TrEMBL record, chain A:
The lineage of its organism: Bacteria, Pseudomonadati, Bacteroidota, Sphingobacteriia, Sphingobacteriales. The keyword Signal applies. It comes from the Bacteria. Residues 1-27 form the signal peptide. InterPro entries: 6-blade_b-propeller_TolB-like. This is 6-bladed beta-propeller protein. Transmembrane segments: none annotated. Keywords: Signal.
From TrEMBL, chain B:
Residues 416-428 have a biased composition (Low complexity). The lineage of its organism: Bacteria, Pseudomonadati, Bacteroidota, Sphingobacteriia, Sphingobacteriales. Residues 429-450 have a biased composition (Polar residues). InterPro entries: CarboxyPept-like_regulatory (IPR008969). It comes from the Bacteria. Residues 416-450 are annotated as: Disordered. It comes from Mucilaginibacter gynuensis. This is Carboxypeptidase-like regulatory domain-containing protein.
């Protein structure tokens, strides 16, 4: 994996990472894809509308994350919301920090050396899982950051096991992970039975027992540029995950026994890649350059979440636009852009989207839990708007007021919980 | 007229001018009001951030003010006239403009214009849409664009004038541009550098009217969200991509002085070509094409002394210069942000210059001896030199995705003819002995040098096709230099003294040939550890090697005229010599660096780097010569480590500071002419005798430097402080023996340790308010040296102190007025043991004022007051140099100019220079350029609307 930079976006170009295996072979179940019932979503981001905060949300809560020496962090790379906890993977030092639901700091996991880049949560066992040594060790913590166990794996040497530690749990001992396109062939020592599939299902010990979404030879060298959160994201159903497939703008729902195609998003031609983009082998190794020449083409749909009839997601192209973080109401067909939502009295005239932060484009919606969307705002952004709106004399809740009075633009980020209205 | 009276007159003159500027300002003050409002996208229902709100006087259509809307879409524009019909126009990229007509009622301070609704254009038509009103500034994505047409300047204004008008932009006196306090890393025209990296050629030549817009954009890799590193790109209008500009100027002056300049330059998207020349006898010289181009700039002259006669230059000088430069750009990239990374340029230039110099000089040299006695040497020298040089250079640079390649070729030919006559006398106040010398010298030199080098680098990268890392991080450099020189010289010297037995006469001819070739190979294998070991974050181990091989063949033929003949010479066997010198200099090293970065997004980025270079040096000198004393073989091995600690603290949007400590070691190897010179007694007053046992000196140098700059974007401040301490072991110093007749016999010896301490600091601050800009620059440097020397066998500890300080204010008002006030001080003191110290001080006050009305009259005046004094007891020397120009620009586009210049109005220029050495101080008086009055006419051909192909 290496990082590239364009339009205030850190682009992660995930390239195939696979591990050493033995030559033993195992039979694993292949889950078929159900394409019988999906919807086409025809969306033109350039015409996404705006409005007031109160037009879209019924509740809003700003939760400043406590700033003390131990809890000081950069910005939020990933956020998991679980019961009364905010668990974050932060971007500057790559720690995992745990705050309670009112923003009080509880504990920190990881060290400067460990440089954590992944964060998985098992909602069923209420555990935090991460790996920082290319899958050789899996550390399991409780929600207070106490390390429960460290599991050593010989995953590289075992053809049944995955080294991927970025997992979404669909049950106590059931998780789903994603693979990248790879040109490893069956006679390679790196080959595993699930190598040619985009999705694998694994137990807690990372033994893969099923796989889905196979790809053919033409896609062996398909280079994928991923940004934001994804391609796997949590759904509003505990036992399912969304999967956003590269370049064809398809969204799948991954469940333990089924993989369902839910949506096929169709963007205007100007914003889309050609239909054969993922199978045209002449583009292999050159897709990055292709996007440089077609800077408006969307190369990634990420941060895909659902709250009732609303779906939210991020589109990324080389050129930055104000219409990249979108909310789409599947009933009314209304497409709105988060950046165009204007602060009003419901939001105490404070913004809901960070436009100043150096890495704001990477964020967008960080998490969702059935009704609520969670975003983060840097204190730099909060205080900029607080000072712009001094004449409004908003009646801030006590905690927020305390933060605004005593804090500074150098404080920790603030989490914004937004409860979406059912009909937009 | 006394000097103080003149000073008073000048000061009053300046004060009156400044008062005039202030008065002109005060007249404009009338009752004003402000407007507030908000801009929105009505159809899509959101406020428009960074939309442009411009306010025009409806009657005159004059742009009164403008602003970008804030993050809430709101705006507040102040200082607008009341009871006047105004047009308020909102524009935003991709939208149709929205207009309002308003009158701010008298007495109403804040007038709410409400919501300005903008309607979106069809996005595919955005690029070609035609607007009735051009917004002065707009955001296009993350690029800030200033539209040149919206800034009303005279038709003769150039890019520099436009930038002065742009909010947040500061053009510094040295051509540096800052936007909100942050230095613009590159200034480009349509994505390319303009005739090299000297931005002044662009700033002073391209007319404002051929510019479509000026773009400022951030470099994406910068983490600072508030003040990222930025570039500036000047976009030319569609019909102005190909252009011609130049100058033809001639001037004639009293005392038959003359000056002529000429330039013709052409540029297109692919080529940049310039032919430029100058000839004068008024000390306007140049040693490269860029300086000549600056001479010939459309808006070149002002208070900046770079473009005026150098009155400190010694002698009478005639300068002729001719330059040619050509650039072919093969790069097809159109995105200005990527052009640097895809550079593909061929660049050539040629420079010819000829300098004729005639100098008459009077010298008084006081040499402090033991017991408060001294030798005083006086002399008159006259010489004529003619130096001509031809230099050509070509380079090709290409950047790749994973590296770059740069090749350079250069050839230079330098020829000189010189003749001189010298009369010197020496008086020893202890022995009361004196001596006299008269000598004549004629000679010529012909020197050719050729060099070619290639350098480049490759970067290790991840191959996305093969899924593995490829290449290594490698920098390489190879340089090959050949130098050939031929010197022909004849001298006739007659030495007479009170001791007639010491009288000497020499008539000697020297034919000296030297051929030298040098190969240098430098390689750095960076992050070597990453190839074999799993990398530890922040640790980098580099393997360095520098190998230099030098081969020199010398052939000296010296002959003396046979006594009693007029043209019969015999070979001087003591000085005739053939030699071959080979030097091998090999420096292998391992560089270990550890970087510790700490940053918090949106708040700060700090970095601490430790660096240690473990480096050895193997140095071999082998000299084989027919003069046996010069058969030398030396081989030395030294450990020459360096260490560096650097700490940077970038508090985003507030300040950035940097602290660096550096420890360096190096070795100074004695050269053949120091160890085994051939004694030439024809150099009556100074020759060197051998010391074959002279050893290399070993230098330690420790420096601590601190830099600070503000990043708040208002009234920029930057400051720096440096402290450097040095210790030289076995310092190569002089052992000098002065005989009673004032003759000097020098021998280089290894003395005790030499110590030095140098402190310097500087501060720059700019204030910008409305149309006024004030820049302050202050610098100071203090130097202390302590070392021992031997004079007539007596060992002295010598202390030398040198102090320099300057404070300069530059002021500009609009594009019309500019002024400078500067104060400079330099002083030195050297004391050998307990002998009387030698001292000098020089004060210089510099004032300048320039005024230019477009297409009309301009004038500028500059005055330097100098006060200098050497060694206690001698009187102060005062002189002032006052210059002034008055001129008139006419024709459409101000293409023609008539100028009258008065130089050295007070007729006081007399080059008096003090040079301080450890035990002697030399006062020289030289003939210099003095008062003249010149009339100049110039024509500036400018064709900026050539049809583009």
């Amino acid at each position: 994996m290496f990082a590239l930079s364009k339009n205030r976006i850190l682009v992660f170009c995930y390239l195939t990472i696979f591990s050493l295996l033995t030559n033993r072979a195992y039979a694993q179940e292949t889950i078929k894809v159900d394409t019988s019932n999906f919807s086409y979503l025809r969306l033109d981001p350039s015409n996404a509308i705006g409005g007031k905060v109160s037009d879209f949300f019924s509740e809003i809560e700003y939760i400043p994350l406590e700033t003390i020496k131990e809890s000081l962090f950069g910005s939020i790379l990933r956020l998991e919301v679980l019961e009364d906890r905010f668990i974050i993977l932060e971007n500057s030092n790559h720690f995992i920090l745990i705050f309670n639901s009112s923003g009080k700091y509880l504990s920190k996991v990881g060290t400067q050396k460990e440089y954590l880049t992944e964060l998985s949560i098992n909602r069923f066992t209420k555990q935090i899982l991460f790996s920082n040594d290319r899958g050789k060790t899996l550390t399991v913590c409780d929600l207070n950051g106490t390390v429960l166990k460290k599991i050593k794996f010989e995953a590289n040497a075992d053809k049944t096991k995955t080294t991927s530690s970025q997992m979404i749990f669909l049950g106590n001992d059931e998780s789903v992970g994603s693979n990248y396109y790879d040109n490893i062939e069956i006679n390679s020592k790196y080959y595993k039975p699930f190598s040619k599939y985009l999705i694998h299902y694994a137990k807690s010990d990372r033994t893969v027992y099923a796989q889905a979404l196979p790809y053919g030879k033409l896609q062996n060298n398909l280079d994928v540029i991923n940004v934001g959160i994804g391609p796997l994201t949590l759904t509003d159903i505990d036992t399912a995950s969304f999967y956003s497939k590269a370049y064809d703008y398809s969204i799948y729902q991954i469940s333990p026994k089924t993989v369902k195609l839910l949506y096929k998003i169709i963007f205007p031609a100007y914003f889309s890649v050609p239909t054969n983009f993922a199978t045209d082998t002449t583009l292999d190794g050159n897709r990055y350059q292709w996007f440089e020449k077609h800077p408006d083409a969307i190369f990634c749909v990420s941060n895909f979440f659902r709250a009732g009839d609303n779906i939210t997601f991020k589109t990324t192209s080389w050129n930055s636009t104000k219409e990249d973080d979108l909310i789409y109401n599947t009933k009314s067909g209304t497409l709105s852009a988060l950046r165009h939502i204007e602060q009003d009295s419901l939001s105490y005239h404070l913004p809901i989207f960070d436009e100043t932060s150096a890495i704001s484009n990477k964020n967008g919606v960080l998490a969702s839990d059935k009704d609520n969307l969670y975003l983060s705002l840097s204190s730099l952004e909060m205080f900029k708007f607080y000072n712009l709106n001094l004449e409004n004399k908003s009646l801030y809740p006590t905690k927020l007021l305390s933060y605004l009075k005593k804090g500074s633009k150098k404080d920790n980020a603030v989490i914004v919980r937004l409860k979406l209205k059912k009909s937009l | 007229m006394s000097l103080t009276f003149r000073i008073r007159v000048l000061v009053i003159f300046f004060l009156l001018c400044i008062a005039g500027i202030s008065y002109g300002q005060k007249n404009n003050i009338t009752e004003t009001g402000s407007i507030i409002g908000i801009s929105r996208d009505s159809l899509h229902n959101y406020p428009l951030k960074a939309a442009t709100i411009s306010v025009y006087n409806a009657k005159s259509n004059e742009l009164l003010s403008f602003q970008l809307t804030n993050d809430l879409g709101k705006f507040q524009i102040k200082n607008l006239p009341v009871d006047t019909l105004l047009h308020v126009i909102a524009t935003n990229f991709g939208y149709k403009e929205a207009k309002l007509k308003i009158i701010i009622p008298s007495g109403k301070k804040a007038f709410n214009v409400g919501v300005l609704n903008l309607e979106r254009e069809k996005w595919l038509l955005q690029e070609v849409s035609i607007r009735s009103v051009i917004p002065p500034v707009q955001m296009r994505g993350d690029t800030l664009e200033f539209n040149a047409a919206a800034f009303k300047l005279d038709t003769t204004a150039v890019v520099g004038d436009l930038l002065q008008k742009l909010p947040g932009v500061t053009v510094w006196n040295d051509g540096v541009i800052t936007v909100n306090g942050k230095k613009i890393s590159r200034l480009l025209v349509d994505g390319k550098e303009f005739f090299g990296s000297d931005s002044r050629i662009l700033l002073n030549n391209i007319p404002k009217n051929s510019i479509q817009k000026v773009q400022v954009y951030k470099i994406k890799t910068d983490n600072d969200p508030l003040n990222a590193k930025s570039e500036m790109n000047v976009v030319l209008k569609a019909g102005n991509k190909n252009a011609l500009f130049g100058k033809l100027g001639v001037g004639y002056a009293t005392q038959k002085h003359f000056a002529g300049d000429g330039m013709i330059s052409y540029f297109s998207p692919r080529q940049q070509i310039s032919v430029v020349s100058a000839a004068n006898d008024v000390n306007k010289t140049a040693n490269n094409v860029n300086t000549l181009m600056n001479f010939n700039s459309f808006k070149g002259e002002g208070i900046n002394n770079d473009y005026h006669s150098d009155f400190s230059r010694e002698g009478f000088n005639i300068f002729k210069g001719l330059g040619f430069t050509f650039l072919q750009d093969f790069n097809k990239e159109t995105d200005t942000r990527k052009t640097y990374y895809k550079m593909n340029n061929l660049n050539t230039d040629l420079f010819y210059s000829n300098n004729e110099n005639t100098t008459n000089q009077e010298i008084i040299n006081t040499i402090a001896l033991n017991d408060d006695h001294s030798i005083t040497q006086t002399g008159t020298n006259k010489w004529q030199n003619n130096n001509s040089g031809l230099r050509t250079n070509a380079n090709y640079e290409k950047r790749f995705r994973n590296g770059f390649l740069y090749t350079n070729y250069s050839f230079a030919n330098q020829k000189s003819n010189n003749s001189s006559k010298q009369f010197n006398s020496s008086f020893n106040d202890l022995t009361q002995e004196n001596s006299k010398t008269s000598s004549e010298q004629n000679g010529n030199n012909d020197q050719q040098s050729f060099s070619a080098n290639i350098r480049g680098s490759v970067e290790r990268f991840f191959d996305t096709k093969r899924h593995r890392k490829r290449l290594v991080n490698l920098d390489f450099y190879y340089n090959f230099v050949v130098n050939n020189s031929k010197q022909r010289k004849g001298i006739v010297t007659n030495f007479t003294s009170t001791d007639v037995s010491q009288d000497r006469y020499y008539n000697r001819i020297y034919l000296i040939d030297l051929k030298s070739s040098t190969h240098t190979i430098n390689t750095v294998l960076r992050q070597f550890n990453g190839l074999f070991f799993s990398t530890v974050p922040g640790i980098s181990i580099d393997i360095n090697n520098i190998l230099t091989l030098n081969n020199q063949n010398g052939n000296d033929n010296v002959s003396d005229m046979l006594p009693g003949t007029s043209n019969l010479y015999e070979t001087n066997l003591d000085l005739t010599n053939k030699s071959n010198l080979k030097i091998l200099d090999e420096k292998p090293g391992i560089n270990i660096a550890h970087t510790y970065n700490k940053s918090l997004d949106n708040r700060y980025g700090t970095s601490l780097t430790y660096n240690i270079l473990l480096q050895g040096q193997f140095y071999v000198q082998k000299n084989v010569a027919t003069q046996s004393i010069q058969n030398i073989y030396r081989s030395n091995t030294f450990f020459v480590p360096t260490a560096r600690v650097n700490y940077t603290n970038d508090q985003y949007g507030e300040f950035k500071n940097e602290l660096t400590f550096e420890y360096l070691t190096s070795v100074i190897y004695p050269e053949i002419w120091q160890m085994a010179p051939l004694i030439d007694r024809a150099s009556i007053y100074g020759f060197t005798i051998p010391n074959i046992s002279l050893q290399p000196s070993y230098q330690h140098m420790a420096t601590l430097s601190y830099n600070f700059l503000t990043q708040t974007g208002k009234n920029d401040l930057n400051a720096n402080l440096n402290i450097a301490g040095g210790l030289t072991e076995r310092n190569i110093t002089d052992s000098v023996y002065y005989d009673a007749l004032g003759r000097t016999i020098r021998r280089y010896i290894n003395g005790d340790n030499r110590q030095s301490l140098i402190l310097n600091g500087g501060i720059n601050k700019a204030f910008k308010f409305n149309n006024h800009q004030l820049q302050f620059s202050g610098n100071t440097k203090v130097e202390f040296y302590e070392y021992n020397t031997l004079t007539n066998g007596q060992d002295y500890l010598t202390h030398t102190k040198i102090f320099n300080a300057s404070a300069v204010f530059n002021y500009t008002y609009q594009t019309k007025w500019s002024g400078v006030i500067g104060q400079y001080y330099t002083g030195g003191k050297s004391q050998q043991g307990n002998l009387n110290p030698l001292t000098y001080t020089t004060w210089t006050t510099n004032l300048g004022l320039a005024y230019a009305l477009p297409r009309s009259v301009f004038f500028n005046t500059r005055v330097n007051f100098n006060k200098t004094k050497a060694t206690a007891g001698t009187p102060h020397i005062y002189y002032a140099i006052w210059n002034a120009d008055i001129g008139y620009r006419f024709l459409k586009g101000s293409n023609a100019e008539v100028k009258f210049s008065a130089l050295d109005l007070l007729h006081q220029n007399n080059s008096v220079i003090n040079r301080l050495n450890y035990n002697n101080i030399t006062l020289t008086k030289t003939n210099v350029l003095q008062q003249y009055f010149m009339l100049t006419v110039a024509y500036y051909p400018r064709k900026f609307n050539k049809n583009d192909k």
